[in-house]
Design a protein that fits this description.
2 domains; OB fold (Dihydrolipoamide Acetyltransferase, E2P); de novo design (two linked rop proteins); 7 helices; five-stranded antiparallel beta sheet; three-stranded antiparallel beta sheet; alpha+beta; 226 residues
Amino acid sequence: MNWIDQGFLISKNKYNENSIIAEFYTKHHGKCSAIIFGGTSKKIKNYLQVGNKLHINYNFKSENKIGNFKVEIVKPISPFFFDNKKKLLCISSAMSLVKLLTVELQENRKIFDGIENLFENLNHSIWLKEYVLWELDILKHVGYDLSLESIVTSINVGNEKKYFVKSNSSVKNVPKFLIERDNNNIDYEVLLSGLKLVTDYLNKSILKANNLNHPPSRLNFINILK
């Protein structure tokens, strides 16, 4: 079987002295992993950075053996942020969630397009807001929609609308930007509270329920934001 596609590099691991096993999220084939022969060579390894977009030629001869990729760089992403640790960790966090939440060889254009849009937004001042909203969207695209709009209650406090979720035992505030997505003037602490809300949902509804560990790269990203 052979196919040609484009994809974002999710992860890479050394396979032997000269090769690596790389995992991509592709436009038409979803998540896929295979060997890149010569992947440790100077010619190739410099653009095999997590988050980079590559042209992929995939080939495998037997279902019992792992396939192989031949790759060419389409768009470097990570190198533009080598001097910005927060944004580099943001890229790693995003890719770790894609790796964790998606299914092998299952196409989902909404996820692919969402990754592309997220990386474009890293150049904007509201990049952290866009990242939090991206996490909500990817959870929705894989079947874990938090559906905040349908469960929140709103009240007017002065000239501002406040949102909250009420249960039998507590009332939890919901940051306004998670509901009114066009709101760009957001305090940093409010952005962090939005990220914490998504984190709590991810832990409770997905990770613990499926006996999964929290991706270390996402934890590192959260810690550097504090």
